[in-house]
Amino acid sequence: MDRSLTSETTKAAREAVASDPCARIARNAVTSSGVRKAARDPEAAAQATTTFDIQLEQGDTTDQKRSGRCWMFASLNTMRYRVMKKLGLKTFELSQAYPLFWDKYERSNWFFECVIATASEPLDSREVSYLLADPICDGGQWDMFRSLVKKYGVVPKEAMPETACSSNTGDMDKYLTRYLRAGAKCLRDVIAAGGDGDAIAAAKAELMQGVYRILVICLGEPPASFDVRIRDDKNELKASGTYTPREFFDEFVGMNLDDYVSVINAPTQDKPYLHAFTVKFLGNVVEDGQVRYVNLPIEALKRVAVAQLRDGLPVWFGSDVDQGFLREDGVLDPAALDVDALFGLPIEAGLDKAARLEYGESVMTHAMTIQGVNLDAEGVPTRWRIENSWGDDHGKKGYDVASAAWFDEYVYQVVVDKKYLTKEELDAYESEPIELAPWDPMGTLAR
Question: Which domain holds residue 155?
Answer without folding.
Answer: 54-446
